[in-house]
Amino acid sequence: MNQFRTFSFFSLFLIAGALSSDAYADGGWYVGGSIGQSSVEFDFDEGGDDAFGLNDNDNAWKVFGGYVLDLPLVDLGVEGGYVDFGSVSESVSMLSAQADVTGVNLWGVAGIDVGPIGVFGKLGAVAWDLDGRVSGIANLSIDDNGTDIGYGLGAKFMLFSLEFRAEYERYQVEDGVDMFSVGATWVF
After folding, report:
1. Which of 10, 64, 86, 174 is the most exposed place for a label (fewest CB within 10 A)?
2. Which domains, and CATH codes, for the chain?
């Protein structure tokens, strides 16, 4: 009976190892999308004086693509995409502010995979555009843009050519833009 248990355990171990090795894709080109929540902090100012501060959350989304090189110990890649941080707004007394923030980003990505599960970090830049307005006692229209750095951390689960992600990104846009998202990629 002990030999049967040993044989069964060893067989299951071999089958699980064989299945897990084919359960995730090697490196290559990929495309994907994510949805999540953004947090935007921005001070509307005129002539150097802060006129109104904006700190709000909204739904956000992004589409992206890239290439990953699957090395023995780490994954290295490059990723670019478009991100829409949503439309944030805030009202105080007789003033209200609203801003739409979008961007195009380029990341260097490095990660570690343990079977079908992995973690990764990102470092890169975002070219952003902010369209905002303050109305009420003071009326301001803001059309601002720039390029700033960003960084991110994430975790992934790979199932054949499909990869599920959860990630956090921080952009140094104005006073700060954060994004938490979940999504999927297709490696081909």
Report:
1. 10
2. 26-187 (2.40.160.20)
User: Got the DSSP string for the chain?
Assistant: -HHHHHHHHHHHHHHHHHHHHHSB--SEEEEEEEEEEEEEEEEEEETTEEEEEEEEEEEEEEEEEEEEEE-SS-EEEEEEEEEEEEEEEEEETTEEEEEEEEEEEEEEEEEEEETTEEEEEEEEEEEEEEEEEEEESS-EEEEEEEEEEEEEEEEEEEEBTEEEEEEEEEE-STT-EEEEEEEEEEE-
Amino acid at 100: D
CA 162 to chain centre: 17
- pLDDT attached to residue 23: 47
DSSP bridge partners of 169: 152, 179
pTM of the model: 0.79
Task: Give exposure, 61-79, as e/b (b: 16+ Cβ within 10 Å).
Answer: bbebebebebeeeebebeb
At 46-59, the pLDDT tens digits run: 555 555 667 889 99
Q: Which residues contact 8 (CB under 8 A, 6 or more apart)?
A: none
| Residue of 117, 105, 110 lying closest to 169 (CA atoms) | 105
pLDDT, tens digit (0-9, with 9 covering 90-100), for 88-144: 888 777 778 888 999 999 999 999 998 899 999 999 999 999 888 878 777 878 888
